[in-house]
Write a structure and sequence with these properties.
The chain has 196 residues and is mostly beta strands. The chain has one helix at 2-25, and strands at residues 32-44, 51-67, 70-84, 104-115, 120-137, 140-160, 165-174, 177-178, 181-182, 185-195. The chain has an 8-stranded antiparallel β-barrel. β4 and β5 (120-137) form a beta hairpin.
Amino acid sequence: MKKTLFALALAATGLAAVPAAFAQSATPDNGGWFINGNVGRTTLDKGPYDGHDTGYGLGGGYRWSLTPSVALGVEAGYNDLGNIHLKNVFNDRDVVQRGRSELHGWTAGVNGHFNLSPNWYLSGRTGLYAWKGHGTSEDNPVRRSLDKTSWYAGAGVGYDFSNNMSVGLNYDYYRAKKDRIDLGTEMVSVSAEYRF
């Protein structure tokens, strides 16, 4: 019993030291080129649409380090928010479901990375969203293909494991409305970023 308690205490001490080991390699300068990706749960609850799917996004850009704890930059990316239903991997339904909003598009905007400590950070982003989707309105059941340029915005919190690698938790909203059809979608996601 004493050996088990000692082993647990030793393991806990080792796990507690992991963030400190990463903290030594993290530097306050977080500017430069970056690539990132995120995956999470999307929510659309407008008109005839009410449900959750799995969405993903891929992006990249450049940030300028303004101070040791503030970096601002530009970004561009692609996302798919409307028709991936991962729980169908475990049944006989389609994982990619047609007949849903099928919302996807390109983003171009600005972003910020704000360090609260050498490792913890807040992030923010906003910009243009050039989207395509399919939908119906409550007063017109005919399914239509739509496209438009609108906007997106989001915020997040995360942890820098080093000057090059971080993970985060994000909330984003993608505005997608045209001709009384509202496909605006929220996404809560987990992200990973690599900085060069």
